[in-house]
Amino acid sequence: MTHAERRPMRRFSAILLTLLTLLSLTACGSAAEGADDAQASTQSEPAATRVVVDSYGREVEIPGEVKTIVCTGSGALRMIAYLQCTDMLIGVEDTDKEYETSTLRDYAHVYYETFRDLPAIGKGGGTSNTAYIEELITLQPDVILSGYTQEALEDLQSATGIPCVSIRAHSINFIDESFYTAMRVAADVLGAQDRCEEVLSYIDSCKDDLAARTADIPEDTKPTCYTGAVTFSGAHGFTGTYSNFGPFMAIGARNVADQEGQDGYYDADPEKIVAWDPDYIFLDPGNMNLVNDEYAANPGYYNALRAVQEGNVYSCISFNNYSTNVGYAIADAYYAGTVLFPEAFADVDIAAKTDEILEFLLGDAYYDEMVADGLSFGVMELGHGA
Predict the structure, then answer these.
(1) C-alpha dist (Å) from residue 206 to 199, 213, 357
(2) What is the pTM of this model?
(3) pLDDT per residue as tens digits for the range 9-27
């Protein structure tokens, strides 16, 4: 074959090689695109399950994406309300359907109409297992968030086969770290981390503000105070009090009931209260019927107290009912500040401040409803109620 004859053959071979190369590149590109599409599809789909660590440190396997929940036990449903995730509920405890008024549970008042129409999934009322097992098995929520004790929680998980995650928090002192931990666990389960950090940052800002207002006041110039007629595991009369009372702790107040060996609620010795003779007394307006009955039986005892003689008896709204009503506790601290340290809290309008707190936590400013329900801040007169 001559040189001239070979030239067209070489051109043909070059063209053929180019075409094969292009086809190869196209195929590779399609394969790569297919792999990218498959990877993107895999990344966009949540894992079938994931593991969360709850308030007890238990590792609990839950669905990768949680869509439906129920809450059992003390404090659990309140946190879901603060996290703005009530739309995920498919049932509530009977005890959370009862609070149309604002007197005991902040969240149950705001969401009364929502809770009223949901199926009942348990009796409620404490930290032991009072769930309706058959109803839970029928409803099949993705997760049960609970304030039960660990033993009760594990019994419930065993009985239902549904993942049970503890979000139990303590209801002593002033919104302690156990509340922060529980909120973050709940937020992890629900995918509400941003809202959770907003809530916790707001609480921190209130704590910082409360503490800063009294930080420079010498301890020996602060008046003494006492809180009575508290609500904790039910209503109590005048001697029902707290050591390390949260609202007083928040403002550095001198609580006469702070006693060694006591942390939280206890019944004080009536004679000790006389000996303490606090400058200011704060009472739960919701329990004034008990106090007034006690006063009618022994008015001399109460009239001997300097705070009663000088008209320094004020309201302190109950904030413990099925764990801590965080908004009420913060509002109590601000109000106690206005009474005990009027100059440091001169700019605080307690009605407006209470509405601000409730609006942020629950989306509803309802202090006027609290007043109508007998939960107003103000002077208390023994024998006459709020």
Answers:
(1) 11, 11, 9
(2) 0.87
(3) 434 444 344 444 444 444 4
